Amino acid sequence: MISNKHKILDAILEQGMLPLFYQDSEEGSVEILRTLYKAGVRVFEYTNRGKSALPNFKKLKEIRDAEMPDLYLGIGTIKTPADAHAFIDAGTDFIVAPIVNPAVAEIANKLNMLWIPGCMTPTEISVAQENKAMLIKIFPANILGPEFISSIKDLFAGQLFMPTGGVEIDATNLKTWFKSGVCAVGMGSKLISKEVIAKGLYEELFDNTKLALELIQQSK
Length: 220
What we know:
9 strands, about 50% helix, globular
């Protein structure tokens, strides 16, 4: 059952944040997902960044279906049609990419599935729009900065943008991003750090996730 892309987009906008991570351990991946959910996350991106991504994703979907029926579970780092098909077969709710691949967009659009491509230039944004991207990931946002969004948003009136990379759990940082014109932020290692993953610091992750969600609601 593929979820409606408008509902998922609305959920991302309401949450204001899309948490994302990958780790090799299935057990660790499940614990992080449970921790994020407990802290209030209802839309989440697992990333296709290692050999265990597909089996781990299948396990996460099993846990989601059993324990978290109101969670949207998506897959990130999808660069090829083959990857897209593999994770669609595994039951992903939406697709995130670091690049614009029109062939992946076509697959997602045929299924009425939300596809969030990554863009770094106005030309890439234009190509993403031609391929019906409702939400565009600005990546790497730590290189481009909020000034990039401020500078280009009028060129693409009405387009929804989400920076990923370098977004911090910090009131000033978040306010600067939202003031620049983004509708949500992607949060990877600044939220789910290597230390959290390596040491299983789930209580710290729970607290930081709750704080991030609160700061984002205040920053919108």
